[in-house]
Specification:
elongated; eight-stranded mixed beta sheet; Rossmann fold; N-(1-d-carboxylethyl)-l-norvaline Dehydrogenase, domain 2; homodimer; alpha/beta; 8 helices
Chain lengths: 253, 253
């Protein structure tokens, strides 16, 4: 049984609290949180502390706070030589204070406050300074997820950039689709099956194999018609740049 | 029972043949195809003709050929005053020869040759010149799909542009994510749950509500770090443009 404590009360902390509490291989010892009331709906008050001096022994401590608070929180912990990890995709392992053994436990998913997540499918990226700590993190991660990866800080940075493309930017393209629909009295519902199928396709095909559309088949008539249709300057720039990128891609083949 | 014939043997034609054949409310009379052998695995040879003069009476004829062949094929049909529709997202109704009653039957989905589709969830966009023909198309569309919409030529053009954003461009962003992973020895698998969740989120949230990430929260440190990470000029341009678009969007709120 892995004994773990969490520092933090935000989105990631709350999802981890729920995942750990319902797991028989994990003992959630305590949660350290400045704002106790943010998590009292998730666990008993006697296991929440706002004073880091009250933190009891655990096999590891997970700092799940905002990126810019990680270094400070790790420096404030009143103990030494224990395993302390953060959950960030962008912060390096070295941001953690050196007085403890350091690591990263990064769940690669977009967490929404009110949406339950199935942790078994969420990839968890692990990094440690030594093999024994990796085993501890592995045990914890495998207890809640079927997709556990060893990823170093440099790779994690790359992964986070890639995630911005496939999550943040993709969602922004959904929004542009939504706006075009609204401006033409078309229900956005009509695009949702296409959006689902686009995401489903790459489960079995590589994105390169799955690529279709006017840019891919170099259909200049359609591209020209679309460019004339787009009166919003930013949308037009995005259309042109992504079309060029798909076209150049073809040439690289 | 709606009697329908299809002209064409490509991707869309093949998926329609399969959907119509398995449906008790539809009688697939014939398929007109230059290359009979492309569809002999789908229906009996005596219902395939390469000679348009052999086309028998049907309630409607669906021209499912490439965009630039639609006008010519419609002109070659040897009959008049019957209902003839095409399946294109980009071609206007007026491209069809005027000797027949014209319409559009546009299934909004990305069809892959080897991937079965569930037609019940595919939106079908209809346009006709008169109400009676709309009823015929409605009957046919509702027999195979639960998502039937009346969409005029101008709206269909908008819809196609929107579809390019949420399908073609989104898939290209998946590919960039894949490339970043490959260049850093990270399995692309690791991003797939995030891709699925991104698509799932907008079933219940609007894309604007679902937007997260460094651009949305104006996290300039992370944006700067990502821009330094991206050495590929095109990827860097796409990152900058989409980040700006998300940021400006916030201001519009």
């Amino acid at each position: 049984m892995t004994k773990v404590s969490i520092i933090g009360s935000g989105n990631v902390a709350q999802h981890l609290i729920q995942a750990f509490q319902s797991n028989s291989e994990i003992e959630l010892v305590q949660v350290g949180a400045r704002n106790k009331e943010r998590i009292t709906h998730l666990l008993d008050l006697d296991r929440i502390t706002s004073d880091y001096n009250q933190l009891q022994f655990a096999d590891l401590y997970i700092i799940a706070v905002s990126d810019d608070a990680i270094a400070e929180v790790s420096a404030q912990l009143p103990f030494e030589n224990r395993l302390v990890v953060h959950t960030s995709g962008t912060v390096t392992l070295s941001a953690l204070a050196t007085k403890n053994r350091r690591g990263v436990f990064y769940p690669l998913q977009t967490f929404s406050k009110d949406k339950a997540v199935d942790f078994t499918t969420i990839p968890i990226c692990l990094e440690t300074e030594n093999e024994e700590d990796l085993q501890t993190l592995n045990r914890l991660a495998n207890a809640i997820s079927n997709a556990v990866y060893k990823i170093n800080s440099e790779q994690r940075k790359a992964l986070h950039v890639a995630a911005v493309f496939v999550n943040n930017f993709v969602n922004h393209l959904y929004q542009i689709g939504n706006e075009i629909c609204e401006n033409n009295q078309i229900p956005f519902e009509i695009l949702k099956p296409l959006i689902q199928e686009t995401a489903n396709k790459i489960v079995t095909l590589s994105p390169k194999e799955a690529q279709t559309g006017p840019a891919k088949r170099n259909d200049l008539t359609t591209i020209e018609a679309h460019q004339q249709f787009l009166t919003d300057a930013t949308q037009s720039k995005i259309y042109t740049l992504l079309t060029q990128s798909i076209q150049n891609n073809g040439k690289k083949l």
